[in-house]
Amino acid sequence: MRKVSINIALPKGRFLGETASVLRRAGWGLDGYHETARFYRLKSQKFPNLSAKVFHEKDIPVQVAVGNYDLGICGLDWIEELLVRYPSSALVKVRDLGYGDGALYVAASRSAAAIVAELQAKPGIIRMASEYPNLAESFMVNLRLRRFSVFPLWGAAEVYPSESCDLVLIPGRAEEPLFNYGLVPVAKVLRLSAFVIANKNSWETKNLGDVLASIYNTNPVVRRKQPSSTAVVRMPEIAGQGFPGVDEGIVRLALPDGHQQVPTLSLLSKAGIRIDDYTSPVSNRRPTTSLSGVMIKVIRPQDMPLQVANGNFDLAITGRDWLREHLYRFPSSPVTELQDLKFGKVKIVAVVSKNLPIADVYSLRQLIAKRLGPFRVASEYVNIADKYARDNHLGMYRVIPTWGASEAFIPEDADLLIENTETGRTISRHNLKIIDTLFVSTACLIGNTGSMSSSSKGRRMKSIMKKLQTAVEDV
Amino acid sequence: MRVQRCKGSRDLSPEDMTRFRLIEGVFRDCCLKWGYSEVRTPTLEYLHLFTSTGTLTPGMLNRVYSFLDWDGWSGERVVLRPDGTIPVVRLYIESMVEKELVRLFYVTNIFIFEQTGKETRERWQCGVELIGVGSTIADVELMTLALEVLKRLGLEGVELRLSHAGLIRALLAKLELSPGEQTRIFDQILDGDAEALTKLKSGRPELDNTLPLLDLKGKSSGFLKNLKALFTRDLAEVEPTIDDFISIIDRLDALGCEYQIDIASGRDFEYYTGLIFQFFIGGEKVGGGGRYDALIPLMGGKDTPASGFALYFDRLMELVKPEILAGPTGQRILIRARSEAAEGGFNVANRLREAGYVAELELGGQKLTNLRWTLDVQNKAPLFILNDQVNHKRFEAQTADELFKLL
After folding, report:
1. Residue B1 lies in a domain
2. In this complex, which of B72, B115, B183 lies closest to A87 when CB atoms are compared?
3. What is the pTM of this model?
């Protein structure tokens, strides 16, 4: 009897090592599932009918729920992040694998920590930043906070309190959580570890038994008490001092982490601005600077436009791609490009499989008109992708948000990508082709239109702009 | 590909709309005669209007349609109106506070997610808010108004079930629970856990014996007086709320209203502070309301008592019989005019409509059912040929005046 094919989504990142070791013990014979792997599609020697693909962990519950994959392995945090917002997702939590023992905490800055009761009584808006916006919102709703804002983040949440937000929802160790940057836990929201999940329909109709049994057999049964997933575990009360503000005149500058660090630092030094400890291996997210009256935090460039719009930062160095991504979603946002910094040039392009017989977006539209079923657009830039699909009348389309490595989505899990590319080599290597260029993006200085008008702060902001302008023109 | 409507949404067909408008018409007519004025609030509101304690229960809040607006960069969400009362209260605080007494009514849709998609997620309701009075007479006014609407809709077998949020809260307060725990259990009761109250264990025997009695249902103020006799020794604080409840019941008795007292039947809305009343027909809830004296101050207004109710279209539309309610509608006439006589057709149709007829131009495809008259319009004599479809007779007329005489 021919065996049905089984698809499994495997995690990159924090659980890759232990997951790979479990699957090795299970005798799967996966070739190339390790930290430095360059390929995303894997075959198993033991189960010839099994195909595995490697994803960013956050993508896995979504991919399994929509039915692209029968099985997946990922952290309970990302499963609950999906389920708390979309409880009817077609997802079955099959088994706790027991490793990756951690927890999600609501944390605040030690200097500004408050107990839950104080939060409930606090007038004004409580700001919470997190990579888990759905769980964060659920926490705020269940706490019956009167007014709150949730800032979704791509990362670096730990550096936000207390100046840029009041609370963060972040992962930590299950016992004795220790956080950087003087954070203390206020509440434990969820205990997490790696889970096997299944698509509900696959679970009901397909025989996944051999594959699952091979995992169970390597793995001692976990007998740990699982607290109910989104229950708030009250922490001991923490003495608080209320919520301090930042001195009005201080300019809050956001610098990018990741591969834009080196060119950013070189431009800043050309502009005569010294930043200490920015590109060091320990990567301090609060580097010091020679500029007076300026506070610097190192955060993700993706998060900067929203943070600047909300006045949590006054200036930021990010890419024009992320500024547009923000402004397409929020046209009235008070964030604006102040200065083109000219480095980090990438093209934002529309990409399809090389096997599609089309050369441009017009022939793509004709192709879509003929096919049945929805057309899937995958992108890290959901708003740019959405606008592109809208403007080009791509029919009944769906935008699938991704958290990196989008090239691996085509052809199984998406039909079109909106991607950035420097040379086009990665795209070509994945058997893909560019059919359209949306725009060219470079690094730029962005600012909040409101903070420019305040006198002392505005003066400092203009002086930084001036220095950067001179440095850019020198190049 | 077939175009489909959204999961959980519903179209209202011409037949549905006939029922809808009949209910709306009766409701509006009653409200206007009782001195209420109509308002309409926007479909979008800020989410924070509904999030604080004392507004919607978490069970409701977790099912609202909230999202970031185009200018939602601050992270503040907006929501498709999940409730009829809170927006009207917001409107009152925003622009009517100077008035001492306000009687308002509305016909609106509300949006609540329902997981299976089998029940509609957009629901229509018609409601009334009586703001500025805290008397038991006001509560009775609302219940009698609602009963009048249901009666004029020709609906029979209406059950009125009564509970009292103040009484539930006062009992919870006696259980020495933390404020958070009290809210949680109150919310459980409102979210439909009928046993939440009776399965509580307080650790105080006199209470543990009393709580199961709350599960019983009463049919007269005697029931409440029995409870009061039990409570006054151990729970003197409960007395004022029981007295309030009893005085409402006495008034209903005087008016000859039938009702059932069911303490654990409070539902849905955390903002209730006093009487909660619900209407059932054949076991299905068709509406409800209650007193919400704390809501206006909670939302930033002055300390103002208020109460209100809403009736649910979706249930009522299944129950009303249009033929009972249908008033004298105009007679239908189908006008057949050849294209060269089209102008004459339009003209005579206008005159017929002014005279109260429903005049329909033949455009092909109409069936001659449910129709007494057809009229042929020509550009040569005879100009008008009138056919009586019921008695199979044919009349000719040369002028419109002659035609009207024939009709």
Report:
1. no
2. B115
3. 0.80
